[in-house]
Write a structure and sequence with these properties.
The chain is an all-alpha fold. The protein is 73% helix and 0% strand. It has 10 helices and no strands. The protein is elongated.
Length: 206
């Protein structure tokens, strides 16, 4: 979860830029890590040169696509539900629901970024920033739980945030819902139950 701000002013027609980003998203879903700029250009009905003029290279396109996806999929609205939860424990449950809803929609792009982080320092840096943002959001939920007196004994806020952050990363979600076959609703239910039992005081676990 990260809102990426591109450097400099956007090049050219905003409508063409939007069309390119939408085409890139669709190609990402279809092609995964083998995403090619030529295919994005063809899908958008423009030349390959137009892709370079708008974004510079594939890495910059991917970073722009990350921000575009967060906006298009209304990540801000999903996170607002977490912030507005009546209690910290409910905020934790809503955050798990966000992961259950958002992860399948962003997974194609996540796979591409994970694959390209080893080839491009800009992609690696963007992923680290995204993970830092994500961990901070999880820590805020745990800090609220602790402030309300509902964090289980033996846990510090940082240690509990580390666990909450790590077990809800895309790779565990992918393994559980893919290889293990958990339906999305079951993922949310079981992960919430696990986290409540691990991190919440006994009287607030149900």
């Amino acid at each position: 979860m990260l809102y990426v701000v591109s450097s400099g002013e956007p090049y050219g027609d905003p409508g063409t830029r939007e069309r390119l980003l939408r085409a890139a998203w669709e190609q990402a879903v279809e092609q995964g890590p083998s995403l090619r700029l030529a295919d994005v250009a063809a899908r958008a009905g423009v030349s390959r040169q137009a892709v370079y003029l708008h974004f510079g290279d594939r890495a910059k396109l991917l970073l722009e696509l990350l921000a575009w996806g967060d906006e298009a999929l209304k990540l801000g609205d999903l996170l607002a539900r977490v912030t507005e939860a009546p209690t910290g424990v409910q905020a934790l449950e809503r955050m798990v629901e966000v992961h259950a809803a958002y992860s399948p929609r962003i997974d194609a792009l996540a796979r591409i970024l994970e694959a390209h982080q080893y080839q491009d320092p800009a992609v690696a840096a963007a992923l680290r920033d995204r993970l830092s943002f994500r961990r901070a959001a999880h820590r805020a939920v745990i800090a609220r739980i602790a402030a309300e007196g509902d964090l289980a004994s033996g846990w510090t806020v940082d240690a509990a945030a580390d666990l909450f952050f790590a077990v809800t990363l895309p790779a565990p979600w992918r393994e559980l819902t893919g290889a293990c076959g958990w339906p999305a609703g079951q993922y949310a239910e079981r992960m919430s139950q696990f986290l409540r039992r691990a991190l919440i005081t006994p009287d607030q676990r149900t």
